[in-house]
Write a structure and sequence with these properties.
Elements (H helix, E strand, L loop, with lengths): L2 H14 L10 H9 L9 E5 L5 H9 L3 E6 L2 H14 L5 E5 L12 E7 L7 H11 E14 L6 H10 L6 H10 L2 E8 L3 H21 L4 H20 L3 E10 L3
Helix pairs in contact: 1-9, 2-3, 8-9
Length: 255
């Protein structure tokens, strides 16, 4: 990693570590997806892959009586989640681990539900789905959000942004087909409402960006990086008709 890349990631995590969540989502959407997992045991074993600071992890603990393992490869996220769990008295039921999402080192067929909000794309769905399937018991559920194209004809600015961050991004149909090829039955899917992008993600992000501009006012290189990061909410404000986050709920095929 060169000095420029190192500085980018330093500023990136200075921003994202301060946010309530690291991608679009909200409690209502988490609850709606969980209701679609209709035959879970009364106290399911749940794995939250790529949990970030764990907003959805806490929601899952509130909405179920299950035991939860939450995994992320960025130690400060896990440290913050641990503090949240201690404050909420949830540590007896929720364990937060620093681990690689692609190889978490957890028992195969050890979970009734694998959950992931906005994280599987980081190792590619093609790689992530077999990992998820190996961690699920027969008939286990997978619930995850993923960015998808809503319609063709996105402006070059939008296409270029996603090609940098998510070059393999597809549409709802292509994600469903990939789930089928990976041994899952697609049960339901729904689009996150626009407010799920703003209340706990882009609005706090915009506030933190203002703090970073003040904090790094004498550092032109840092300010350039901050402006790159600030472009994301504005892109969504202008072009959200072309892309969305979709919540997919699937189940391992048996037999």
């Amino acid at each position: 990693m060169n000095a420029g890349e190192e500085k980018f990631w330093k500023i990136f995590f200075e921003l994202y570590e301060a946010l309530p969540r690291q991608g679009p989502g909200d409690r209502d959407s988490t609850a709606a997806a969980l209701r679609l997992c209709r035959e879970l045991p009364p106290a399911p074993d749940i794995l939250d892959l790529g949990c970030g600071t764990g907003a959805q992890t806490v929601h899952l603990a509130e909405l179920t009586d299950g035991q939860i393992v939450a995994v992320d490869n960025h130690p400060p996220f896990i440290e913050r989640l641990d503090a949240t769990l201690r404050g909420a008295g949830l540590q007896p039921r929720v364990r937060a681990l620093v681990a690689d999402m692609a190889a978490p080192g957890l028992p195969e067929a050890g979970f009734d539900l694998v959950w992931s909000e906005g994280a599987l794309y980081s190792i590619s769905l093609e790689r992530a789905l077999p990992v998820c399937r190996s961690l699920l018991r027969p008939g286990g559920y997978l619930a995850f959000t993923d960015a998808v194209w809503r319609k063709p004809g996105a402006p070059a600015e939008v296409r270029e942004t996603f090609e940098l961050d998510y070059p393999s991004m597809g549409d709802v149909e292509s994600v469903g087909a990939l789930l089928q090829r990976s041994g899952f039955e697609v049960l339901e899917h729904f689009t996150l409402p626009d407010e799920a992008w703003w209340a706990e993600f882009y609005e706090p992000m915009s506030e933190q960006i203002e703090r970073l501009r003040t904090r790094h006012a004498d550092d032109p290189e840092a300010l350039e990086i901050i402006e790159q990061l600030a472009a994301e909410p504005e892109l969504h404000r202008r072009y959200s008709e072309y892309y969305a986050y979709e919540f997919f709920v699937a189940r391992t095929r048996q037999g």
